[in-house]
Amino acid sequence: DQQVKQNSPSLSVQEGRISILNCDYTNSMFDYFLWYKKYPAEGPTFLISISSIKDKNEDGRFTVFLNKSAKHLSLHIVPSQPGDSAVYFCAASTGANSKLTFGKGITLSVRP
Amino acid sequence: GAVVSQHPSWVICKSGTSVKIECRSLDFQATTMFWYRQFPKQSLMLMATSNEGSKATYEQGVEKDKFLINHASLTLSTLTVTSAHPEDSSFYICSARDMQGDYEQYFGPGTRLTVT
User: Fold this and answer.
1) B102 pLDDT band (50/70/90 cuts)?
2) At A98, phi and psi to the nearest 5?
3) Which of A18, A90, B41, B42 has the lowest CB atom count within 10 Å?
4) Are strands A4-5 and A56-59 parallel, antiparallel or unpaired?
5) Cβ contact B110–A41 (<8 Å)
6) A105 vs B97: CB contact, 8 Å cut-off?
7) pLDDT digits (tens, 9 = 90+) for B34-87
8) Residue B109 is nearest to which of A32, A34, A43, comparing CB atoms?
């Protein structure tokens, strides 16, 4: 049973445009959500997070939106840059000191 | 920022031997560290949660006698793959949670294990 789903395996966008990466979850107990970026043969790098008490969190070019009623969150990257090309993982947690549940990831390619 | 290191970054071993992987938090203390395994084009699968000074908590389906975890200090956790077999070949990644921080986990660079 996959509790965090990233249904699109890949996304390709033009440099300078917006990248929108989607994530859905099924466990209503999740109260904290995170996005990680990962290059091949490297560990994931934390990007941005959002608590369930918020619906938006912004950090520079990265914005995460949370729709609790739809159990859906999205990561917006604008403007997209070629260096953003990587695999992006959505993760969720229930409560403090809890383990993270990851989605399968989405491969983003930003074309120059 | 928070830095987590892993050693070795890659290792090749013969079937039947044991391999130890170290995970260190370099600039923060971590009461909790996590060990993940990633197969090609798959998600990160949590293997176990390592708590400083106590026994690790293993996820369902993970053999605790095969994957020995020791968390002896607030900055070091080790994963030992005992009697390794080719099917244990994978990318092993650790993460650590800053005991002074929130929910974020900081990941190490990973260890590529190849068992021949």
Assistant:
1) low
2) -100, 160
3) B41
4) unpaired
5) yes
6) no
7) 999 988 777 889 999 988 888 899 999 999 999 999 988 889 999 999 999 999
8) A43
